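Run log, item B.
One chain of 121 residues. Sequence copied directly from the ordering sheet:
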Amino acid sequence: MITRNREMEQEVRPNMRGGTGSVTLEHWFRPSDFGAPVRLCTRMTLEPGASIGEHAHPAEDEVYLILSGTGRIREAGQWVPVGPGDAILTGRGGSHAVENDGTAPLVIAALIMLYTPERPS
């Protein structure tokens, strides 16, 4: 399955998770496209000054891949700078927040995978 850039469904979420400004989500794929339990597969763009508020990930893992721009991630109570090529994994009940403290858009690939009960062997 291929989703062309021009075909991606787009949505804007103001004050995402209690953050500031708006976050634009461009969905590469929807959960129903996967055979595995996935909740989100999107490209997120945070304009300068925008943020996603702190939130937890119980029963799921979220991967962020920083595609362009700079910002910072709050992880384990500390703000850590991030930039292109950095990868962030949050899950197992952990929480995080993200903020674009740079001067250009912060573009992030985001994938959220859900835990499933163990299958008997």
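Observations after the first pass:
- The mean pLDDT is 93.
- The beta strands are 9-14, 22-29, 38-46, 51-56, 60-68, 71-75, 78-82, 87-91, 95-99, 106-114.
Flagged for discussion on Thursday.
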